[in-house]
Amino acid sequence: MRITIDEVEIPASGSSAVFDAVQEVANTLEAEIWSTDDFAMTSAMTLPEYRDQRFQRRVLLAAAIDGRVVGRGWLGYGTEADAVTASLDVGVLPEARRRGIGTALLLELERRALAAGRPTVTAFTQHAVDDIPADEPLLGASVGERAIPANAAASRFMLDRGYALAQVERTNRCDLASMLGELPDIVATSTARAGHLYRLVHWVDRTPDELLGSLATAREHMATDIPAADLELDPEVWTPERVRAREAQLAASGDHAIVVAAVHRDSGAVAGYSELVLGEGKEHAEQWDTLVLADHRGHGLGLWMKAANLLALADQAPERSRIYTWNADENEHMLAINDRLGFRIIGYSGEWQRRLPRSD
Ligand SMILES: CC(C)(COP(=O)(O)OP(=O)(O)OC[C@H]1O[C@@H](n2cnc3c(N)ncnc32)[C@H](O)[C@@H]1OP(=O)(O)O)[C@@H](O)C(=O)NCCC(=O)NCCS
Q1: Do 58 and 32 have their domain in common?
Q2: Which residue's CA is minimally distant from atom 44 of ligand 1?
Q3: Among 51, 54, 75, 220, which has the highest number of CB atoms less than 10 A from its own CB?
């Protein structure tokens, strides 16, 4: 039995057999956790993330036994010169576990993070609520009330590799049909409350030119003005060019983004934004960023934007019946909004961090 760990070369066009095999492994692992194909991706959906490396570097590794791909790992980090963090993920097919393959992948990714000057590495583990045994010991972060199973293979793996649980996130799902009737009222109440100060602007995929600069600023705040518990986060630099690059990347993946911004009437600037991302061929949508800038909080903009955007989704893509979203367990305000919008917990993710010792 020969175990190999190799970097996957990213094909300039089309896909490759090894990239497809790695994607297949990733899909098997997601389905193992969530018992659904909702999170399965094709290579065509994933490849654009690897092709444009101007703002985010991304490295992909394949682990194989006698040439058959049984595991994969990726490392990602911002290209900002002063950044110190990197994110990574490793996964091994069930039949190939406990042979040191996960550790070999992790060590190689950690080595590369250090070499890139990113000594603080973050990894995540996912846990469906239905799979958490009642008598299982739990592990929580320093804030928040929810916890993940301490003895799950993924938790043991992280702990044994020296990672600390820095934050717990909730994975939530909303079945849109059950909420649709309530959304117009929520939007009307929100408009009455804040409509004299803000107006909502909707778009699909392409940010209007006049909002590009202030949306870029808002995206910078999205990197740091969020509850982070014990996670160390890097600031991100967002320029209009980077916003356009991200739009191009989503388009290349076949995704669509339905976006709403709350625009401050006096300044004409984005005070907050919220985006739903629609993967190609899927029956669900994913609620990604929602942010209200600090100066504009306390006007109910979060609930207003989200409710309005769900209505836009129901109008433009009525076949998308379920929405997923991910929130920090200690993010009380956002959790209250999501609760109001009918989101329910289906699982947790553990966000783990480790500061790597220098090799010299
Ligand atoms: C976590 C995962 C990557 C481990 O892969 P693996 O190839 O089995 O890992 P290794 O063989 O290198 O195991 C390393 C150590 O982790 C711990 N570990 C792994 N699985 C474990 C389990 N089921 N129970 C207890 N400890 C476990 C052990 O300490 C193990 O060392 P040992 O076998 O000498 O006791 C794999 O279970 C997996 O793919 N899970 C789903 C994806 C995921 O959660 N990834 C983690 C996020 S980075």
Answers
A1: yes
A2: 154
A3: 75
